[in-house]
């Protein structure tokens, strides 16, 4: 497909988009509902959003799931480029042709939903939300019966291959372990757990294992699932009395790849089901590979019996890449995606983005897409202009408690005075605790000093707030998204002041 879409192509794109969006988790949908697909150019889908913040979210946390969903819906590997169209929100609301169910409330009125934080993420009632509906993709289902051992059924992203993975000192061991497991599933290390900060290649390695296994053992049954999908599957199965089918689905697998197991924390029924799945597979020497944002022993609210099992096999980490590896990653990315960028631009980007490979790639795509759309090629000067918001570590602007309180107040329905008051209404307490947590995260202030700022509270109150928000963020994507969004706003304000 090309630029200049006719009405039917436009409608087709809108349908594809909707299908892809329907498969996303509620936490991701929050960010996507107001986006609009503009055009598909080769394998790049350009999507418009109304503000910087939404773009940042689509380019970071939401990107992997969204690109995966679109690639599946289009049956071709597709990359996402996000542009900003400020008037978009109104025009979309007028048309109202996108799904604006449930999650909208989160985005516009985050604190009002506090009552639901205590529950596990509930999938939409929409039938399409059942992940089974989507794999193999709708197009494939119409024409062919299910086969075993396909990339689509395994839910693997075609882009995440070992060939595309750049090895450096930060990930050498994790890569070697992943290859070993793929070559001898169930024999080398079982389970294999890969942990590390966001955007350092854990998901990539997980999918690469799946591809390699399918290459070496084409009839094997491989399945990738993230922990939120697993949770949704468990909730649906219990609600619909389909637990036997659920058991079959996850236990008739040779290689189970589970992403982001930290989201199992605090979800009892899901943990129980996962425990039994784990045992059933492990007993039969089926391979289990998992990723986590921290080592299993630090998943403190996970049941002991699960945590113990996670440590039966091999645990390895991925670290942020050094400058040389970052440049090599950008080079590979540029070559794979046929993006033209001179060496000094790649070095500029690699020097600015130090801790997250997803952001590293996002910056390259943003700079080259901008040049493309303007019919020019990217050079250092253009890259510096387009990426002026990238601030290397060490150059971070100072953030004050005042800024945090002002932004939290503006984001919630409360005033700064409310945040400092003794009022303990439920929503206000959450807003206050988030603000305290952010003071802990974004400033060097001590606990007593933070307490003082919030109406002379005791340091133990701040400590409690900090713990509580950390826990909620690990358990609830909605809270995670709100805190991320607020953090972005605060940083943006700090840069401007
Ligand atoms: N060593 C690498 N070589 C090439 N690309 C990489 C490498 N590491 C990460 N990437 C790319 O960076 C992006 C982010 O990686 P990935 O999604 O695997 O991170 P993650 O650790 O799973 O993050 P999260 O915890 O947020 O899910 C992906 O597009 C991936 O292909």
TrEMBL record:
Function: Plays an essential role in the initiation and regulation of chromosomal replication. ATP-DnaA binds to the origin of replication (oriC) to initiate formation of the DNA replication initiation complex once per cell cycle. Binds the DnaA box (a 9 base pair repeat at the origin) and separates the double-stranded (ds)DNA. Forms a right-handed helical filament on oriC DNA; dsDNA binds to the exterior of the filament while single-stranded (ss)DNA is stabiized in the filament's interior.
Subunit and interaction comment: Oligomerizes as a right-handed, spiral filament on DNA at oriC.
Entry protein name: Chromosomal replication initiator protein DnaA
Record note on domains: Domain I is involved in oligomerization and binding regulators, domain II is flexibile and of varying length in different bacteria, domain III forms the AAA+ region, while domain IV binds dsDNA.
GO MF annotations, alphabetized: ATP binding; DNA replication origin binding; lipid binding
Entry's family note: Belongs to the DnaA family.
Chain positions recorded as ATP binding sites: 199, 201-203
GO biological process, one term: DNA replication initiation
Lineage: Bacteria, Bacillati, Actinomycetota, Actinomycetes, Propionibacteriales
Cellular component annotations (GO), alphabetically ordered: cytoplasm; plasma membrane
Region (Domain III, AAA+ region): 155-371
Species assigned in the record: Aeromicrobium yanjiei
Gene, per the UniProt record: dnaA
Subcellular compartments: Cytoplasm
Main localization (coarse): cytoplasm
């Amino acid at each position: 497909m090309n630029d200049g879409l006719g009405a039917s192509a436009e409608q087709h794109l809108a349908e594809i988009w909707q299908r892809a969006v329907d498969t996303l988790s509620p936490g991701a949908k929050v960010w996507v509902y107001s986006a609009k697909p503009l055009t598909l150019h080769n394998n790049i889908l350009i999507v418009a959003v109304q503000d910087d913040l939404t773009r940042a979210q689509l380019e970071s946390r939401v990107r992997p799931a969204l690109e995966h969903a679109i690639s599946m819906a289009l049956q071709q590997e597709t990359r996402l480029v996000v542009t900003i169209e400020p008037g978009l929100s109104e025009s979309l609301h007028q048309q109202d042709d996108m799904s604006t169910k449930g999650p909208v409330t989160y985005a516009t009125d985050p604190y009002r939903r506090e009552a639901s934080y205590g529950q596990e993420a509930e999938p939409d009632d929409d039938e399409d939300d059942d992940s089974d509906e989507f794999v193999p993709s709708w197009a494939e289902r119409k024409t062919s019966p299910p086969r075993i051992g396909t990339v689509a059924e395994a839910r693997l992203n075609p882009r995440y291959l070992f060939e595309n993975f750049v090895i450096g000192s930060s990930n050498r061991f994790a890569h070697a372990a992943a290859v070993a497991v793929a070559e001898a599933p169930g024999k080398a290390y079982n389970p294999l757990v890969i942990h590390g900060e966001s955007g350092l290649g854990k998901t990539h390695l997980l999918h690469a294992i799946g591809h390699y296994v399918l290459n070496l053992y084409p009839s094997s049954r491989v399945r990738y699932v993230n922990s939120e999908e697993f949770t949704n599957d468990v909730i649906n199965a219990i609600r619909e009395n389909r637990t036997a089918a659920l058991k079959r689905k996850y236990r008739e697998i040779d290689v189970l790849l589970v992403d982001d197991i930290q989201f199992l924390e605090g979800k009892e029924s899901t943990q129980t089901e996962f425990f039994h799945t784990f045992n059933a597979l492990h007993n039969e020497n089926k391979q289990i590979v998992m990723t986590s944002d921290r080592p299993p022993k630090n998943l403190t609210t996970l049941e002991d019996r699960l945590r113990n099992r996670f440590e039966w096999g091999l645990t390895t980490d991925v670290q942020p890449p050094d400058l040389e590896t970052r440049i090599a990653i950008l080079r590979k990315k540029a070559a794979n995606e046929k993006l033209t960028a001179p060496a000094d631009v790649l070095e500029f980007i690699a020097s600015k983005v130090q801790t997250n490979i997803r952001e590293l790639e996002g910056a390259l795509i943003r700079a080259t897409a901008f040049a493309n759309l303007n019919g020019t090629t990217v050079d250092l000067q253009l890259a510096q202009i387009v990426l002026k918001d990238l601030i290397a570590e060490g150059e971070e602007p100072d953030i004050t408690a005042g800024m945090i309180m002002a932004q939290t107040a503006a984001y919630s329905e409360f005033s700064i005075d409310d945040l400092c008051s003794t009022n303990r209404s439920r929503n206000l307490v959450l807003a206050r605790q988030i603000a305290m947590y952010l003071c802990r995260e974004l400033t060097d202030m001590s606990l007593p000093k933070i307490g003082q700022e919030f109406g002379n509270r005791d340091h133990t109150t701040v400590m409690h707030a900090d713990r509580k928000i950390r826990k909620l963020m690990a358990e609830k994507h909605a809270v995670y998204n709100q805190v991320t969004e607020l953090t972005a706003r605060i940083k943006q304000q700090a840069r401007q002041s």
